[in-house]
Inverse folding.
């Protein structure tokens, strides 16, 4: 998608969104509610026509080639609305057939894995089970691309783990997936690359390693003697908290070795450091105010 | 206090607040029918030959089956109770069961009762609050009937019997709704169960009333709560003791509902939810297959209803001439509705077909507008994310909306003529009247075309089609009786069509409307491929 804009009346849902999902990758699409994730996916599905900008999907135009392209992809909406009078099994078969057929063996296998009863009526499923119906229908279809809009939002932790395992096998089979979420651990575990979206535009995009380059390392240490106060002034250190022998701070990567040298000079009793989790990345982009005022230690 | 009713007052207030408009509409809508009928008594029944007319009407088994047992039709009050009483009672039952299920099982299904129960609320309070609000609506309807009937000059004692009878029979169905809400885990299922009970009660009394005078079947009517108001005999020597029947049954049903609720878990029903099919049937693999699946239940209901209506009206047609010759005013109205013919039976067919044709237009729009519901609920999104095309999705609903009403309209035409054909031995009537019905079909198709056009380009304005349909229905139903100028009454999509068998067949309007409907539909379908689906 290049420079895509979509407005609904006075609100601008997509404000020049540009992003790319390469073939064969699992791409995470991160952002808070209302950032425009679902709108972007619906543009890709040809349900919405962008006001300006362009989008390409599997080498075609998502608007005009929609039915042809849709036989090569499967979509799971964020809030799956099932027909109250149809059973889960019927919906799975219906959606599979509308897509051009589904893999019988995989259908059975996925029903087992997700522990889903296909004989219940749509109105009696919980949110998580409705999600599973759509997931089984999507994953049992032989398609190249999966568009998953917050696919695990109703699943319990066990099922979420199952979902991650399934996605990992899908990647190994060469499928491409765009997976939107505001659940960071989900993206962290399964995605090759991540785009972060805020207010309708992508603010950050890259592999997890690339995004971590932009960030700081969280360090906390206990020293043999009181921490020298001049450490506060060291360039590259942020949010420094000093209590007697203890120090906590965030460090820019270039300043890391200098800090460690100074700490060892005093004598280190214990030291922990960890790379930022996606939670911290996320807070940096969406936290109230700017990043330096938001240490969020873990 | 035991605490089982804690919070009842607050919940009743909440229920009144949430449902006041819907109950108000029901009560007012039903409440005006009776006094309106009573005031029209003098125009319907000519006092000069009232006896003959009344004797003819009451002797007709079809009229009895549809309307109920006649007791005393010589006064406006007694006539009103016979003419519209059973209808009002049945509708009151419908209001009651829908209302009580809406504020109990539907709320529970939506998860709102869970929220309420987490507060300081007694175990029986939510169920009883919903029931009390529905009972209050029944009471309000009874009060309105008593007051309004007294106001238009019928005796107060009879009005009171009429009001009380209606309120108490309505209350029975508060009980029915409260019980079915415990049995089924879904509001849909509870509604279906309760509606079956109401329909069974109505059909039971129709069978009993339609039976011969000396038949034992006549007594079955006592088993039908819908009949109890009539058996109180308002304006015809009131039998107050009959009121005990609905009163006792209401209390018993509510007690049963409370007992049942105590035996089940929150969110579950006593009737296990039936498992459905594990696999989709062979038909369920295309937008049309899906549309058929979504519509078939309600279409089956419409078919049964229209078949019964066609048969009932048909059997009425044979005795129609005798009946009307006693009531010149009615005869004149029917002649005008029926295209001004001298042949009364034909006039009757034309009048009935005119109404049925518009009703089928209503059905066409209802079926088609399911597509809008599919979009709003997010179902269309699932379908359109597959290889299904927008044209295919729109077309599947439009196809059912076009075909089924036309078939039903033709069928009603044939059934209307069935009794007449049997009595005269002239079976060619069947084809003749069915053809007359078919000639009216383009009107409904034009309305459908308009609905497709609006949905394709400006779905916000989809309601405009209801203005057209509502206007047409109003004109065809009462336009002829109000004496409105002809150009105004002819301002409907059906007016240009030839009214067979009274008029001669004329192809230009038929083909013209068909072409216009096709163009509107085609333009609408282009619009649908170009707009956002949200």
């Amino acid at each position: 998608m290049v420079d895509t804009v979509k407005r609904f009346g006075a609100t601008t849902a997509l404000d020049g969104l540009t992003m790319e999902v390469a073939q064969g990758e699992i791409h995470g699409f991160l952002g808070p509610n209302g950032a425009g994730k679902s709108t972007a996916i619906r543009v890709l599905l040809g349900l919405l026509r962008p006001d300006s900008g362009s989008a390409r999907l599997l080498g075609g135009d998502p608007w005009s080639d929609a039915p042809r392209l849709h036989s090569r992809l499967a979509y799971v909406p964020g809030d799956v609305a099932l027909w109250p009078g149809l059973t889960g099994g019927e919906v799975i078969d219906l959606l599979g057939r509308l897509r051009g057929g589904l893999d019988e063996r995989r259908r059975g296998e996925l029903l087992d894995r997700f522990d889903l009863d296909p004989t219940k009526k749509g109105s009696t499923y919980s949110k998580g089970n409705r999600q599973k119906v759509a997931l089984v229908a999507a994953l049992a279809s032989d398609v190249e691309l999966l568009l998953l809009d917050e696919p695990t939002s109703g699943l319990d932790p066990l099922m979420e783990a199952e979902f991650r395992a399934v996605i990992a096998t899908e990647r190994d089979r060469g499928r491409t997936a765009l997976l939107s979420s505001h659940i960071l651990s989900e993206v962290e575990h399964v995605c090759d690359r991540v785009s972060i979206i805020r207010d309708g535009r992508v603010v950050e995009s890259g592999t997890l390693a690339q995004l971590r380059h932009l960030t700081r390392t969280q360090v906390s240490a206990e020293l043999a003697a009181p921490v020298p106060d001049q450490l506060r002034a060291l360039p590259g250190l942020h949010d420094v908290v000093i209590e007697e022998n203890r120090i906590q701070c965030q460090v820019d990567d270039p300043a890391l070795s200098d800090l460690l040298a100074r700490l060892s000079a005093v004598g280190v009793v214990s030291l922990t450091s960890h790379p930022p989790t996606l939670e911290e990345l996320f807070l940096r982009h969406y936290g109230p105010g700017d990043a330096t005022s938001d240490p969020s230690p873990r | 206090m035991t605490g089982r009713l804690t919070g009842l007052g607050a919940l009743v207030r909440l229920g009144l607040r949430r449902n006041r408009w819907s109950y108000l509409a029901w009560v007012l809508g039903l409440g005006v029918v009776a006094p309106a009928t009573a005031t029209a008594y003098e125009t319907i029944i000519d006092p000069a030959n009232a006896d003959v007319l009344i004797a003819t009407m009451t002797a007709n088994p079809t009229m009895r089956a549809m309307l109920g047992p006649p007791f005393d039709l010589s006064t406006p009050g007694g006539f009103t109770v016979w003419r519209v009483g059973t209808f009002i009672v049945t509708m009151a039952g419908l209001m009651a069961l829908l209302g009580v299920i809406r504020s109990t099982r539907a709320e529970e299904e939506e998860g709102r009762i869970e929220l309420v129960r987490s507060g300081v609320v007694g175990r029986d309070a939510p169920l009883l609050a919903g029931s009390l609000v529905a009972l209050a609506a029944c009471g309000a309807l009874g009060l309105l009937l008593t007051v309004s009937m007294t106001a238009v000059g019928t005796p107060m004692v009879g009005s009171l019997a009429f009001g009380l009878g209606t309120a108490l029979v309505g209350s029975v169905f508060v009980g029915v709704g409260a019980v079915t809400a415990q049995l089924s885990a879904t509001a849909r299922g509870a509604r279906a169960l309760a509606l079956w009970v109401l329909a069974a009660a109505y059909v039971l009394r129709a069978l009993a009333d339609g039976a011969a005078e000396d038949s034992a079947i006549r007594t079955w009517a006592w088993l039908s709560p819908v009949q109890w108001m009539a058996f109180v005999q308002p304006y015809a020597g009131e039998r107050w003791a009959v009121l005990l029947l609905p009163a006792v049954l209401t209390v018993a049903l509510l007690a049963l509902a409370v007992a049942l609720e105590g035996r089940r878990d929150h969110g579950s029903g006593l009737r296990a939810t039936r498992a459905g099919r594990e696999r989709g049937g062979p038909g369920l693999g295309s937008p049309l297959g899906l549309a058929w699946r979504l519509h078939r239940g309600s279409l089956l209901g419409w078919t049964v209803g229209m078949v019964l209506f066609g048969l009932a009206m048909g059997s009425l047609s044979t005795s129609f001439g005798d009946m009307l010759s006693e009531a010149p005013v009615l005869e004149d109205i029917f002649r005008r509705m029926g295209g001004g013919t001298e042949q009364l039976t034909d006039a009757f067919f034309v009048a009935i077909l005119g109404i049925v044709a518009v009703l089928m237009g209503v059905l066409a729009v209802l079926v088609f507008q399911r597509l809008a519901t599919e979009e709003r609920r997010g179902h269309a999104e699932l379908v359109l994310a597959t290889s299904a095309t927008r044209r295919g999705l729109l077309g599947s609903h439009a196809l059912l909306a076009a075909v089924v009403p036309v078939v039903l309209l033709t069928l009603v035409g044939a059934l209307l003529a069935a009794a007449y054909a049997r009595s005269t031995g002239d079976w060619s009537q069947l084809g003749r009247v069915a053809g007359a019905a078919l000639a009216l079909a383009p009107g409904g198709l034009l309305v459908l075309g308009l609905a497709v056009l609006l949905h394709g380009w400006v779905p916000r304005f989809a309601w405009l089609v209801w203005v057209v349909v509502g206007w047409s229905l109003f004109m065809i139903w009462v336009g002829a009786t109000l004496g409105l100028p002809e150009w105004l009454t002819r301002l409907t999509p059906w007016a240009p069509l030839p009214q067979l068998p009274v008029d001669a067949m004329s192809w230009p309007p038929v083909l013209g409307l068909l072409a216009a409907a096709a163009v509107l539909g085609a333009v609408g379908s282009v619009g649908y491929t170009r707009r956002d689906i949200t």
User: Anything to note?
Assistant: The longest helix of chain B spans residues 287-325. The interface with chain A takes residues 185-186, 188, 273, 275-281, 284-287, 289-290, 293-294, 297, 377-379, 381-390, 530, 532-534 of chain B (CB under 8 Å).
